[in-house]
Write the structure tokens for this entry.
Amino acid sequence: MSESIEAADIQAAGGFVMLQGNFATLVFRKRFSLKVVDGVMDKSISNKSKTIDCAETPFLELRKVNVARGDRVVLHDLNLTIRAGEHVAILGPNGCGKSTLILAMTCQIYPIVKPGMTVRIFGRERWDLTELRKHFGVVAAGPRGDLAGELPGERTAVTTGLDAVIAGFFSASTLWPNLHVTSEMRARAKEALERMEATHLAGQMVGTMSAGERRRILIARALVHRPRQLLLDEPSNALDLAAQREMRETLRRLASEGTGLVLVTHYLGDILPEIERIILMRAGRIVGEGPREEMLTEAKLSELFHVPVRIGRDEQWLHSW
């Protein structure tokens, strides 16, 4: 860490430092504005929320981004821009860094501070996470690779579908008594269920739903703020063939309605026909990006996964073996 970054500077911003080996992570308790430029820290603190024009501002800008987990650097020198409203798939084998990239994109972990490093989401380098969720919806895969691990908390299983979606306004597992729910929140939650064709699940307990039904509830939670961009991690994980088809058709409808989709997957079948751009990842690096016609070839995918890959086509869909 640069010697110019003083503990008093960090504490003034309501934060602290966690040291792990040779790496330092800055952790902040409130919205802040700390910036390292050529090794010098800008100490300004901001408590005002800014209005952003999502239509004109890129959704994501990464420059010279390196991310460590423990003592090991797992993302290396990432440079990536995703336009607001763009449909993108991030494809790569298990262990390539996709999950860590998601955590960095959603501000749950922070890159190593170095000169020239930049992370901007909708043009801003710093976000209150609650405010960010109003512009950027996230449906993450469970830590165990199953849908149960995706649920926000234990209480979600004994919460009705409608209440679980409304709780998305508060990033809560259920509607706790202290939460104030407005009529507008209820209306938006019902709208989100309609978009997911899941109004029949409004009164059903989440814990009694099938895997596909729970996935619809989770996506509806992410849609309550009417976000401009939606990130989905392994969207077909744990779904049977019928549920996979229904989910993909639902995502196509969201794309046609103007919601930008960022799909993170290692399944070729998850890549919707509307996906215009493919980003290939391996060993913590972006090893290729471009139009789907150039990236989704047998030669490139065989190199990416280190096994011979054959690609089949069924109308607009691709599958591999």
User: Anything to note?
Assistant: Confidence is low (pLDDT under 50) at residues 1-52, 143-149. The CA atoms of residues 191 and 224 lie 8 Å apart.
